[in-house]
Amino acid sequence: MRTQVGIIGAGPAGLLLSHLLHLRGISSVVLEKRSRDYVERRVRAGVLEQGTVDTLVEAGVGERMLREGLPHHGIELRYGGAGHRIAFEKLVPGRAITVYGQQEVVKDLIAARLAAGGDVRFEVEDVAVHGLDSEPYLTFGDERLDCDVIAGCDGFHGVSRPSIPEGVLSVFERDYPFAWLGILARVAPSSDELIYTRTERGFALHSMRSPTISRFYLQVPPDARMEDWPEERIWAELKARLETVPGFSLATGEILESGITPMRSFVVEPMQYGRLYLAGDAAHIVPPTGAKGLNLAVADVRVLTEALAAYFKDGTTDLLNGYSQACLKRVWRAQHFSYWMTTLLHTFEEDDAYARRLQLSYLDYVTSSEAAATTLAENYVGLPF
Ligand code: FAD
Ligand code: DHB
Degrees (nearest 5) of the Cα angle 102, 108, 109? Predict the structure, then answer.
């Protein structure tokens, strides 16, 4: 079997790449180890930057997102007994975010690939990468897929990054002394906009998916287990962290899904080796506070599509050779922003009273200075692609 681009992973990066390549007349096969049902149900990110929305619309896969997604023109930072709105319409006019679940993006992309006769294979076993220096191919089960180029879109725990010979990649990473416990609940959002709240008990986030479904996150210890967090404890803790301004009451409901995500910052440089190009979480991870993970995956794939289109059109390799460098500038901006939002809003056990005062002073600055608030807003809605 032969294709132009062998893609490992049917997350947002792999599926969008396959779709964008199809629009340029370039063939690909997507190999995914999980089932279609599993990837379509996996609850993860929810905030789409303006550039991500524009990309999906331009690619013809934005129709349901435009219908069902929730455009937001601001977020609230809540701390010290008060809420402070970061008003995108004033600080970054014309730019906004759209709240639309990652698994909805994945569903829309799978539907578009299959409708166009695309080759997306689920429950594929033992994918392995070969021949990166000259004639790349992938093996899986007892099959072989020859390709011109391999795209490693298989997330942080995939096989593509570890297939790069030792010593080639530089790794930059940081762990955080906490994790996020996330829930999806059948309850109307208690706020029109996302609330990022910092309390002495830790951070919490009120997000949403629709007028009847809400999404919440709690900062928890890094070794927390779901068994330690029965429903009553989750709601009690969310209330303790969110009901911190006068008149705000948190509505509760049936918990539909829950999970704990470790917090990590991670980048490899370069994001390529021989005929292998890494995109999305396979190359970099950010803590979710800045809502950048999915958006970075989309940005990488846009750059890779242009580079592959030039290569398959007339054999030019300039853009392919510069792929990693072209992506890393945005990757590092998102790294800094995500780290910054995380340290601004979470409590660190090792912080003494002095460090906590500094954090509150910084929050006061961000919410009272237009320049500082603009920095937050323009990074949050996303710098232009
Ligand atoms: P992924 O979505 O991870 O897709 C990779 C795909 O590759 C998966 O479908 C996987 O099954 C497949 N795969 C892996 N190994 C193999 C293999 N060997 N062979 C074949 N297929 C393979 N971001 C936010 O902004 N907010 C959040 O709340 C948030 N929550 C998250 C929760 C979790 C548990 C995780 C892991 C990430 C979260 N993120 C969040 C980050 C965001 O979801 C990711 O940045 C985004 O999914 C990146 O897309 P991707 O396509 O690069 O990788
Ligand atoms: C969501 C996730 C995030 O990481 C974030 O910063 C904002 C919202 C969400 O899942 O809705």
Answer: 90
What are the tens digits of pLDDT across the range 63-97?
A: 999 999 999 999 999 999 999 999 999 999 999 99
Active-site residue identified among 19, 72, 73, 284: 72
Cis? peptide before 162, omega within 30° of 0: no
Output Rg (C-alpha) for the chain, integer angstroms: 21
Distance between CA atoms of residues 108 and 105, nearest Å: 5
| Residue 380 appears among annotated catalytic residues | yes
Q: Which of 299, 309, 308 shows the shortest CA–CA distance to 276?
A: 308
Q: Judge contact between 247 and 83, C-beta under 8 A.
A: no
19 CB near ligand 1 (under 6 Å): no
Q: Cα separations (Å) of 10 from 107, 158, 161, 168?
A: 10, 12, 16, 26
Which of the residues 100, 176, 311, 380 is marked catalytic?
380
Q: What is the pTM of this model?
A: 0.97
Distance CA 47, CA 100 (A): 6
Catalytic residue check, 277: no
Q: Ligand 1, atom 4: nearest CA belongs to which residue?
A: 11
